[in-house]
Amino acid sequence: MSLRRAITEQAEASDPGLRDLLEERLRFSYVVVGVFGLIAITGVHATGVIEHSIFEPQALSVLALSLATLCGALACHTLRLSITGLRALDVVIQMVVAVCAAVMCWVGPQAIEARFVSLMIVTLGGLWRATLVPSSAGRTLVLMGLVTLPILVPHFVTVPGLNQGHLVPAVQEAGVFVVWTSGVVILSTFTSKIIYDLRKDLNQLKRLGRYELEERIGAGGMGEVFRARHDLLRRPTAVKLLLPDRAGENAVSRFEQEVQITASLAHPNTIAVYDYGRTADRLFYYAMELLDGMDLEEVVRRSGPLPPRRVIHILLQVMGSLGEAHGRGLIHRDVKAANVMLCRRGGIDDFVKVLDFGLARREQAPTVDGDLIAGTPSYLAPEAWLGERHADARTDLYAVGVLGWFLLGGQLPFAASSLIALCAAHQERPPPPLEGPAPERLERLLEGLLAKDPADRPTGADVVSTLESMQEELGAWTQREAAAWWSDAGAIPRRPLNEHGLPETLVLPPDRLRTPSKDP
What we know:
Layout: H1 3-13, H2 18-47, H3 57-79, H4 83-106, H5 111-132, H6 137-152, H7 170-205, E1 207-208, E2 211-219, E3 223-230, E4 236-242, H8 249-263, E5 273-278, E6 284-289, E7 293-295, H9 296-303, H10 308-327, E8 330-331, E9 340-345, E10 348-354, E11 361-362, E12 373-375, H11 393-409, H12 419-428, H13 440-449, H14 460-474, H15 479-488, E13 506-508
């Protein structure tokens, strides 16, 4: 086997849609040809357009061609053949068509009259196959060369028993057949090449390195996320792609930073990164684990405020992920409900995954873009509104307080119709009372996390200790309760949230915000 052929077969084997497409196209082709042949032979003899016996070679050839193609369609439908099997079936059916066409034009007293009809059958069959059936140019060239041989050979070799008479001079007829069939072979080959290459190009557009993209499943500030599969492992994967119109120098720097930071973290509640790369046309992407679940914003949309025990269960896992990051001197800077996934993972329900470290940075590292405001406005701590150089681990803890408030009350603690008003609310207003029953200790903890002065907020260790103490006091959120919620999740209608059209995530200089008034 040649290297080129081996590479082609490997590429075809790694294309999961090719076998099904090939089977569908062959089955459709065989049904059309078979049914058309039966209709043609029945119609011709029923109407008396041609007054010849159904048992003459020409009629039997059409009948044999029709039955062979219908059997081919049945084989495609019932045998579930591999790509190699379908290719072999294609060769067999094409050769049956070629032999039937040769019988029409070289056997029996009516052979001379049917000679050019058989040439049309070979022509239409070749072009039909080239247009409909995915095939490489080389495979089509060889197959069409074989298909045209049975009607060409008797022009040059005397065969006993054949009607080798001619309507026109023998040399002229042979020349017409040679030129015509050569044109059919060339045209079919080029048609196959164009269509086959277009499909390969389309498949390449759906590929990033070793990953085949399947469908778009989300979008964020830095790019889009697609469901994908690895070529060899066939493992379901999520691939995040930096969009070309955002691939400026700073965007690329942030994208690479997100990959490096996330890949350095090993906590089970932090999303795992598998791979990273760039395509030939300079698109940036990275592959991460594909999660089965929904983000906390969607969870609250569906079921409203969550029970306190479930909130504690979720916040402990979020703090576990952030605790590892903070221990390495990293701050997330975009903790929010939309960046926390609640998953069903490994038989465990309500397993938390913290996502999207696209705005993360090291606490003491110089800022990439100067003194910018970066994050989601509804979750930004008062100091973060002054610029990212003021942000530290306590800024993430403030966002955890907003997240906990949102989960318990079903609404964000601070809402406004403009960035100016929202900035004032975070810097000056106390959070409103929580709606619905909530343990006093949990409410005091969240109020502490929402303190305006970072120095007044509890440390991460204190938060974990308090949450664990409350979990012992109230009882842990059980797997039975989690499983019951997930079994009903699809039937729970989505609820509206209090939205004001503010940007999801922003990065802008502090001077873009005017000093807020006391009563915005």
